[in-house]
Design brief:
Layout: H1 3-15, H2 22-28, H3 45-66, H4 72-83, H5 85-94, H6 97-100, H7 105-109, H8 116-134, H9 136-146, H10 148-156, H11 162-172, E1 179-186, E2 193-199, E3 206-210, H12 213-227
Antiparallel strand pairs: 1-2, 2-3
Helix pairs in contact: 3-4, 3-8, 3-9, 5-8, 8-9, 11-12
Length: about 230
């Protein structure tokens, strides 16, 4: 058995799903960089599109079932975390996806196997492939198992103050503390609106609006956390 075949076998073992349709699995693992022109081969972009929708359903279904007391806002924030590209990439790494991917030589040499975008997209494609190969029950089982750590993390994050959570996230990544900047203030004195921008070194900033400076800072911190899949 060659190296990649062994990696695929290990991937299926960790997924808990052995594919009946081997071509479907291969397509899910094939990046669009493979082949060109007449040599173009089936790749995973269309499966990624489907997987994004399947994953969204599975995450919503699980959160609703496990947390009947959570309000819509709480469910929405946790859902965004579970389906975020960064989370999908982390799940992919944990189940051995990088070694099983099929990439063009150039993409592989440029670190494609550790690229969050490539891994996240491939993980979505893989969920779609499981769904097509084994149905919703199979996809549900894979999600519950593969996302175990992400689900636990989302639950543990419940109730954390956004500015504190963002500070902890930045420190854990070895970054300086987040910085906040008041962008503008508008409206009458009795009903002001503040726009605040928060920045963390190495990441694009986020802006948010609030009725006070503190509320705008909290909203901006939460927006950045959700975008990075860390809320």
């Amino acid at each position: 058995m060659d190296k990649r075949a062994a990696a695929i076998a290990e991937l299926e073992a960790r997924l808990g799903h052995v594919f009946a349709d081997r071509e479907l699995l291969e397509r899910a693992l094939t990046h669009a960089s493979v082949g060109s022109g007449a040599r173009r081969v089936p790749h995973n972009e269309r499966l990624e599109f489907l997987g994004d929708r399947v994953l969204g359903l599975l995450a919503a279904e699980l959160l609703i079932a496990r947390h009947p007391d959570w309000r819509e806002g709480e469910l929405t924030r946790r859902h965004a975390r579970l389906v975020a590209g960064k989370t999908c990439a982390e799940v992919g790494r944990r189940i051995g996806l990088p070694a099983a991917l099929r990439l063009a030589g150039g993409a592989s040499k440029q670190g494609g196997r550790e690229n969050d975008r490539i891994l996240g997209d491939a993980m979505e494609a893989l969920i779609a492939a499981v769904y097509l190969d084994g149905g919703l029950a199979a996809a549900r089982a894979v999600f519950a198992e593969a996302w175990t750590d992400a689900i636990a993390s989302a639950v543990a994050a419940q109730g954390r103050e956004p500015k504190t959570a963002l500070q902890e996230w930045a420190m854990a990544a070895g970054r300086p503390l987040p910085s906040y900047r008041e962008v503008s203030r508008s409206g009458p004195d009795h009903a002001p609106l503040f726009v605040v921008e928060v920045s963390v070194e190495g990441h694009a900033p986020e802006r948010a609006v609030g009725s006070s400076l503190r509320e705008a800072e909290k909203a901006a911190a939460l927006a950045l956390l959700e975008r990075e899949g860390a809320a």
